[in-house]
C-alpha cells in the first residue's frame, strides 16, 4: 500500500535526503560536502516551519520510501515579466530499494494535484546536468526546459 503525507519529521527527512545528497556528491564533489546527518538535520530544522515549504513522505507498506521538498512561490511582476505563482520542487528522492516502482511518479502526481487545488498551473524544478536519470524521469512526466544555467570556472 502506498501512502503520501505531509511531514515535519526532520530526522526522517534528513535521513531520506542522504540518497539524493550522495548522488549529487558523486557527480559534483567540488560542490557538495560529504553527507553529514547532523548538519543536514540542523538545516531542515531551520526551515521546516517556513509556511512556503511542504515536505511529503511517500511510504510503501508503512516503510518510508522517499520524499519531496516543495515550495509555493509567488513571482512578482516586473517591467518585462508577468507575475505568476508556481510550486517549485527543491528535491525529490526515492530510496534505492524502492526505485523503479513508480513512486516518484506518484509523488509528482501528488504535487500536481496540490498545485491544481490551489489554482497554480506551473510546477518548476531544476536538476544537475549530469543527472541523466532525473532528466529522463522529468521528461517522461511532461516537463520541458525553458531556461538553462551555465557556468565557467575561472581557476
Quick summary of this structure?
The chain has 155 residues and is α+β, with helices and mostly antiparallel strands. It has helices spanning 10-27, 37-47, 103-117, 132-140, and strands at 2-6, 53-60, 63-75, 84-94, 123-125.
Looking at this protein, list some descriptive labels.
Acetyltransferase (GNAT) family protein, acyltransferase, 34% helix, single chain, alpha+beta, 5-stranded mixed sheet, Aminopeptidase, globular
What does this structure look like?
There is one protein chain. The protein is of the alpha+beta class. The protein has a single domain (about 1-140), classed as Aminopeptidase. It contains four helices and five strands, in the order βααβββαβα. It has helices at about 10-25, 35-45, 105-115, 130-140; strands at about 1-5, 55-60, 65-75, 85-95, 125. A five-stranded mixed sheet has the order 1-2-3-4-5. It is globular, with a radius of gyration of 16 Å. It comes from Sediminibacillus albus.
Amino acid at each position: 500500500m502506498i501512502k503520501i503525507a505531509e511531514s515535519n519529521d526532520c530526522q526522517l527527512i534528513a535521513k531520506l535526503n542522504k540518497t539524493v545528497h550522495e548522488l549529487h556528491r558523486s557527480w559534483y564533489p567540488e560542490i557538495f560536502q560529504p553527507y553529514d546527518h547532523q548538519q543536514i538535520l540542523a538545516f531542515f530544522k531551520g526551515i521546516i516551519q517556513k509556511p512556503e515549504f511542504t515536505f511529503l513522505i511517500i511510504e510503501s507498506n508503512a516503510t518510508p520510501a522517499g520524499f519531496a521538498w516543495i515550495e509555493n512561490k509567488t513571482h512578482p511582476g516586473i517591467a518585462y515579466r508577468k507575475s505568476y505563482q508556481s510550486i517549485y520542487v527543491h528535491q525529490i528522492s526515492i530510496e534505492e530499494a524502492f526505485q523503479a516502482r513508480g513512486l516518484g511518479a506518484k509523488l509528482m502526481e501528488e504535487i500536481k494535484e496540490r498545485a491544481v487545488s490551489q489554482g497554480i498551473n506551473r510546477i518548476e524544478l531544476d536538476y544537475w546536468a549530469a543527472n541523466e536519470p532525473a532528466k529522463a524521469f522529468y521528461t517522461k512526466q511532461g516537463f520541458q526546459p525553458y531556461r538553462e544555467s551555465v557556468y565557467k570556472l575561472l581557476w
